[in-house]
Design brief:
The protein is 60% helix and 0% strand. It is mainly α. It folds into two domains: 115 residues, Alpha Horseshoe (Serine Threonine Protein Phosphatase 5, Tetratricopeptide repeat); 145 residues, Tetratricopeptide repeat domain (Serine Threonine Protein Phosphatase 5, Tetratricopeptide repeat), CATH 1.25.40.
């Protein structure tokens, strides 16, 4: 997956936000003038300061400045966090962090679920685990269990939380631990079978999904080597999650899979080149380190 260059990204972001907010007519404060002057340096911290200043004032211009912060480079957990924050604000239609009812005068822009999804999606494809969770809940609320499963699986693989999927594994026909006879043909579960068909046709996202299903043993026999094969197929098509999860699989090893840190580093480098911040060496070396304990 590739992303537009910074000037185009910022232009598109601000255009998308223009329809859901308007600037209130009020004179700027000294603090605001100072923050705006500092933001001329184009740095993330400077743009974030303005965004948070406007958010604290219940001013919809906060949305524009979060978009500016999100557009800065290099990609880090900070920029992905700004994208995820934008998704949250746009979905809720409010700038404060409260969950109770608001007064009509406090509502400064209309919720935009479509734009919220776009920002969650961007954040997830830049590596935000929070956005993975946001997308899982997004699909759940709309009754799309296939979409929810995608993001639950990706989050579980990243966080080493496959053990939390045991209820789902037990409830899904075709699930089996390693060593069980390999079923021929499609999975008996229709959702998994659909993923298998799309993966076989070359759909890179479905290939990542299928790899995660094999790694978790949901609807298929658990097989980490088979999971890696599907991750690599997606990764070779340029899919950033295929690249990242292939790096995790071969970097962690185990379950019959040989650990190869050099091969993992090559996959992570491809993902990092696409702005996936968790593929930076400081993150992936920690992610592949042996855990203190395991529930698998």
């Amino acid at each position: 997956m590739s992303f537009p260059r910074r000037p185009l990204l910022l232009a598109l972001a601000l255009t998308a936000l223009a329809g859901c907010a308007s600037t209130p007519p009020r004179p700027p404060t000294d603090t605001e003038r100072d923050a705006l002057a500092a933001a001329a340096d184009g740095r993330f911290d400077s743009a974030l300061r303005v965004a948070q200043l406007y958010q604290g004032s219940n001013d919809p211009r906060a949305l524009d400045w979060y978009a500016r912060a999100a557009a800065t480079t290099p990609r880090t957990h900070h920029t992905a966090g700004a994208e995820e924050t934008l998704g949250t604000l746009l979905e809720r239609g409010r700038l404060d962090s409260g969950e109770g009812p608001q007064k009509p005068a406090d509502v400064v822009f209309k919720p935009s679920p479509r734009k919220a999804f776009q920002w969650y999606h961007r954040a997830a494809y830049h590596g935000s685990p929070y956005a993975m969770h946001d997308l899982e809940k997004w699909y759940e609320r709309r009754g799309d269990m296939t979409g929810a499963l995608r993001w639950r699986l990706r989050s579980a693989v990243y966080l080493r939380e496959l053990y939390k999927l045991q209820p789902l594994r037990a409830a899904t026909s075709g699930s089996a631990k390693p060593g069980q006879p390999v079923a021929r043909g499609a999975s008996p579960n229709p959702v998994v079978a659909g993923i298998q068909r799309r993966a076989a046709r070359g759909d890179a996202e479905a290939q990542v999904d299928l790899g995660a299903l094999y790694e978790a043993g949901i609807g298929v026999v658990q097989d980490k080597a088979e999971a890696l094969r599907w991750y690599e197929r997606a990764g070779r098509q340029g899919n950033v999650y295929g690249q990242y999860l292939a790096g995790l699989a071969v970097g962690r090893g185990g379950d019959g899979l040989h650990k190869d840190v050099d091969a993992a580093a090559a996959w992570f480098a491809l993902a990092q080149a696409q702005g996936f911040y968790m593929a930076a060496p400081s993150y992936w070396r920690e992610a592949i380190a042996p855990p203190f304990w395991t529930f698998e």
